[in-house]
Write a structure and sequence with these properties.
The chain is an alpha/beta fold. The chain has a single domain, classed as NADP-dependent oxidoreductase domain (TIM Barrel, Alpha-Beta Barrel). Helix content is about 35%, strand content about 15%. It contains eleven helices and ten strands. An eight-stranded parallel beta sheet has the order 3-4-5-6-7-8-9-10, with helices on one face. Strands 1-2 form a two-stranded antiparallel sheet. Helix 1 runs parallel beside helix 10. The longest helix has 15 residues.
C-alpha cells in the first residue's frame, strides 16, 4: 500500500482509505456488524490506515465499530469523522443561517460525542459535514475550530463539500483555517479539476476523494433490474429512470476501456489517484472481498495520459443526490 501526505497536516495516509458510511447500518442495508468488523480488520492488515466516518452514520454506530477494531488491533490509524448539521439537512441550503447548522456550542458538543464514540482523547481529523460559502465570515465555526485545536481535542480540521459543488470551498480555503477538503471526485464527476484542485495545491490542502465508484454506478453492479431494499439510500439515489441512465453511461465507458485488461471499478479508483492533488480515495467497503480488491489498486499506479484522455470524455453533469 502506497502512502501520500495529507496536505499540510503532514500525516502519511494510505492512498486507499476506508469509507465507513456503509458500515453504519442505516442508510446502507443488508450488511451486519460482524461483516463490517471483519472488513475493517482486513483493511488494516492490508495497510489501509485512513478511516473516514461521521456521527451521522447511524448516530455514531460507525464510529463505535471503528473504535472497537482500533482497540483490538492497536494499529496506528488516522480516523476522520464529521459533525452533522444541527438541522440534519444535507446538503446545506442557501440562505440557512449558520446558527441553525453549526453554532459554536453544538460544534463542541458533537465533537465530545464523537470522542466518546471513538474512545479517544483526540480526533485526528474533524470535519463539518456540510458547507455553505455564505458562512465563511461568521465567528461560530472559526472559534469552534480554534478552541477544539487549542484544547487538544482535535488535531486537524476540514470540511466535507456539498454534493457536486466543489467551488463552494474556495472561500474557506483562502481563510487558512482548514487543513482538508472532502469532495466527490470520480470519472463522471470531474469538475473538482477545474478550480478546486488548483486552490488545494496552492494552499497545501489535503484532499479526500469520496464516491469514487459513484455509489456503485461505476462497478457494473447496477442494472435496470436491480432492486434495492425499501428505505435504503440507493433506492432513492437510483430512483426512476436513473438505473437506465447508469447502464447506458457504464456501457459506453466499458466499451471505451475494452482493451484495458482491468475491471472498470479498478480503473475508476486509479482515475482518482492519477491526480497527485488527491491525498486518499475513500471507497465504501463492507465485505472483505471488496477491501482486498480496492487495496490492490494502489500497486497499479496512475493511469496513462492516453487513458485519462479517454476518460475525460465520460464526464457526466448530474446530481442524483437531489
Amino acid at each position: 500500500m502506497r502512502n501520500r501526505t495529507l496536505g499540510r497536516t503532514g500525516l502519511q495516509v494510505s492512498e486507499i482509505g476506508f469509507g465507513a458510511w456503509g458500515i453504519g447500518g442505516k442508510q446502507w442495508l443488508n450488511g451486519s456488524d460482524e461483516e463490517s468488523l471483519a472488513a475493517l480488520r482486513r483493511a488494516i492488515e492490508l495497510g489501509i490506515n485512513l478511516i473516514d466516518t461521521a456521527f451521522a452514520y447511524n448516530e455514531g454506530h460507525s464510529e463505535r465499530l471503528i473504535a472497537q477494531v482500533a482497540a483490538e488491533t492497536k494499529a496506528p490509524v488516522t480516523i476522520a469523522t464529521k459533525i452533522p448539521p444541527k438541522n440534519r439537512v444535507w446538503p446545506a441550503r442557501k440562505g440557512t443561517p449558520i446558527e441553525e447548522v453549526f453554532p459554536y456550542d453544538y460544534i463542541v458538543d458533537m465533537t465530545e460525542q464523537s470522542l466518546r464514540n471513538l474512545n479517544t482523547d483526540c480526533i485526528d481529523l474533524q470535519q463539518l459535514h456540510v458547507w455553505n460559502p455564505d458562512w465563511v465570515h461568521f465567528d461560530s465555526w472559526r472559534r469552534g475550530i480554534e478552541d477544539l485545536k487549542k484544547s487538544g481535542k482535535v488535531k486537524h480540521f476540514g470540511i466535507s463539500i456539498n454534493d457536486h459543488q466543489p467551488d463552494s470551498a474556495l472561500g474557506i480555503i483562502e481563510t487558512g483555517l482548514i487543513d482538508t477538503v472532502q469532495v466527490i471526485y470520480n470519472i463522471y464527476e470531474q469538475s473538482p479539476q477545474i478550480n478546486l484542485f488548483e486552490a488545494c495545491k496552492k494552499h497545501n490542502i489535503g484532499v479526500l476523494a469520496r464516491c469514487p465508484l459513484d455509489e456503485g454506478a461505476l462497478t457494473g453492479a447496477v442494472t435496470v433490474d436491480t432492486v434495492f431494499e425499501p428505505g435504503e439510500f440507493r433506492e432513492f439515489y437510483f430512483r426512476g429512470d436513473r438505473k437506465a441512465q447508469v447502464v447506458h453511461a457504464f456501457n459506453a465507458l466499458q466499451a471505451d476501456l475494452a482493451n484495458s485488461g482491468e475491471a472498470v471499478a479498478t480503473t475508476a479508483l486509479r482515475f482518482t489517484l492519477s491526480n497527485d492533488v488527491v491525498s486518499t480515495v475513500i471507497p465504501g467497503m463492507r465485505k472483505i472481498c471488496n477491501v482486498e480488491a480496492n487495496a490492490a489498486v494502489s500497486a497499479a499506479g496512475p493511469l496513462s495520459p492516453e487513458t485519462l484522455a479517454v476518460l475525460k470524455r465520460h464526464a457526466w453533469n448530474k446530481c442524483f443526490y437531489q
